Amino acid sequence: MSLFVREQEAKLELIASIARSQQALARILGSIADISSHSELSARSLSENIRLLTQYQAAMCEMLQGITLCHPRSGTPAPPWLNASRLPHAR
Fold first, then answer.
1. Predicted model pTM
2. Over 70: is that where the pLDDT of 53 sits?
3. Which of 32, 44, 69, 74 has the fewest CB atoms within 10 Å distance of its CB?
């Protein structure tokens, strides 16, 4: 298996993990709603745990921002496209 395929699979697994985590959080929030009327202390504790899980998920999503799932392209790159008014000799 090529490095590219393994890299793509790892990226997709990370995305799937975040999605599963979101589903679990939704189920937990439903449970909190059910017990919050019975035990405020338990609801507060679960609420804090959810806040921490949400921060963890946000960190994972930030890591994904730089990840692309497109195929790398090969070829000759084009020359840089520079703004002539910003070049040193243009002043």
1. 0.50
2. yes
3. 74
